[in-house]
Amino acid sequence: MSIISWNCRGLGIPRSVRALTRLVRAEAPLLIFLVETKAKVSHISRLQTKLDYTQGIIVPSDGKSGGLALLWKEGTNVWTHKYSNSHIDVVVTNTTSNMRWRATGFYGHPDTQKRHTSWKLLECIHSQLSLPWLVFGDFNEITHVEEKCGWAERNADQMMAFRNALDACDLQDLGFSGSNYTWCNGRFGSQRTLIRLDRMVANAEWMNLF
After folding, report:
1. What is the CB-side half-sphere exposure of residue 161 using CA atoms within 13 A?
2. Where are the domains positioned within the chain?
3. Distance between CA atoms of residues 38 and 116, nearest Å
4. Is the predicted pLDDT of residue 10 greater than 90, yes or no?
5. Mean pLDDT, rounded, for 104-124
6. What CATH number does the domain located at 3-141+200-209 have?
7. CA separation for the pair 187, 200 (Å, rounded)
8. What local confidence, expressed as pLDDT, does residue 13 receive?
């Protein structure tokens, strides 16, 4: 089983659509979570047809910002629980074993001063259902200074608030392979910044299943 979670920073560029199409064909994921689509429902619907992932939940962008989508193929047993402009929460059922687990695509608030609302949302989602749980997406925060390279120091209280939220929800980082960082500010020299903002976390029950 594979799941794709990608902050695409806009799907209006043909190059982005081609890259996503290649990735989906190579990985054949169960779920595709797209963050910052910056697109209307009609645009995502056309993309769904192209990918043959015709089922899902689309949260349209607010003008030229935001936008989420969680997509899956027809025939996949997925029940939509709740969603907002910051998350999409579903329950996946294995049709052969009848095993159920939660999948939550998550987008942390891009404004540092409002990010505490993201952690309150995460804890609220945690309290709503008791199932094996996987959360994935762009959290817009790091847990430790080692997840950032370059320029200004990260506020320690910000990182602690994120760690506390993960602990409160019994979520553990699943680790990664490849690059240590998932975002770059595109600058060079002393102002260049690399950060690991994207991750997958899960509770012990989910890790025991997979």
Report:
1. 20
2. 3-141+200-209
3. 23
4. no
5. 96
6. 3.60.10.10
7. 27
8. 83
